[in-house]
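INFO  loader      accepted 1 record
INFO  loader      residues=76
INFO  predictor   begin
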Amino acid sequence: MPAETITEKQRKMAKWCLECFFCSRARRKQKGFAYWLVKKVESRICPFCRAYEKVYGRKAYEPIPPSQNTSSTNNK
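INFO  predictor   done
INFO  writer      dumping tokens
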């Protein structure tokens, strides 16, 4: 079975999820209302969260591994 191709549209949607207030807070804090919301609700209905899961291979609420942190977060 061939692997599914990730389209440019899905990459843009995944980038939107990276910048989403709720999703980024859930990934960073791993607790609280934003985490619960993304884990229980958004990941099921939000097309951006589903695109993130497909592009990055992990759930929208899971933390980004330290080796994959972007340099833009270190510049702040």
